[in-house]
Amino acid sequence: MSDIKKVVLAYSGGLDTSIILKWLQDVYQCEVVTFTADIGQGEEVEPARHKAELLGVKEIYIEDLREEFVRDFVFPMFRANTVYEGEYLLGTSIARPLIAKRLIEIANETGADAISHGATGKGNDQVRFELGAYALKPEVHVIAPWREWDLTSREKLLSYAEQHNIPIERKKGQQSPYSMDANLLHISYEGNALEDPWQAPEESMWRWSVSPEAAPDTATELELEYAQGDIVAINGQAMSAAEVLTYLNKVAGENGVGRLDLVENRYVGMKSRGCYETPGGTVMLRAHRAIESLTLDREVAHLKDDLMPRYASLVYNGYWWSPERLMLQKMIDESQANVNGRVRVKLYKGNVIVTGRESSTDSLFDTKIATFEDDAGAYNQKDAEGFIKLNALRMRIAAKLKQRQ
After folding, report:
1. Any catalytic annotation for residue 306?
2. What is the tens place of the pLDDT at every residue in 284-319?
3. Where do the domains of the chain lie?
């Protein structure tokens, strides 16, 4: 411990990380640098500066990373149509590599010996933070207090805070009983009553969306413009990456889109029940597949679908900075060169309905060939006979063998 002179702490300003800050100062006798990121969690981050100052921190980093988060992490992931275990859009998972990246960059800038985080020893986030950190700085020392200290209950944490004069904010109004994590892509809910997989979530739990039953009776129609696989404009209005997701979250949430209740398999081995709101991401996934259906070659599209579960597991398990994810990303990005055009969707009572797609420059849909009307010789239907017989050859051989047996 005496070798650690300075630590960069991922600091939210909440109770847990404030206790970690003081604990690092006391146990490791080191200087602490705090890093607080705004990635769209919807809460003020500046109060973290005051708390850090009260605890004697001299180097305080508070950064708005919303644009970088969506542009360099969310959008690349959605180019792959990424879904974990058939449902989860990886809202928590995709935020961790960005935080790990900035922790390492700040450690390099400040000459810190170590980084620290507030993830527990039972969850996925400890893996995501640390795999990212080691990939970017192999020699870095990682301090994970939840794996070292004996403050294993809420009562012990509160007692420690009181003993060391750590300010505890008592928020006015009703507080959520759930463990929550939010960023521009999603908000998650875990713990409390949700630990019973049979227990339905309370309607009052949801923050970003209305229930489908309470959504408007009139649909909202959107026109999304794509350039190389990314949305660049909505209803003719050019937008940055963060602006796109912010807008989609609002209109999709108002129409009851994006709620999810699932039991997932954590990388550490246990099953976990969680609820998620991902309104904008739900629209993005549906619309992206629609524009790809028009512009991607069949085998390229099918290969992407084959590789997507592997890509999703890499993101979920914390391997964003791994060589295999980087290799897959190059291939995915190459596939998006011609994913240009427009998609029209209708949002209605929890549904995202694609009603149109077009690409004036890159569409592979040929009406002359696909038509049910007279194709004027564009497609010779007689050719299908030989095609079918050749593809049936192996099955005919097998069937004849069975007949002889």
Report:
1. no
2. 999 999 999 999 999 999 999 999 999 999 999 999
3. 6-65+89-163, 179-358
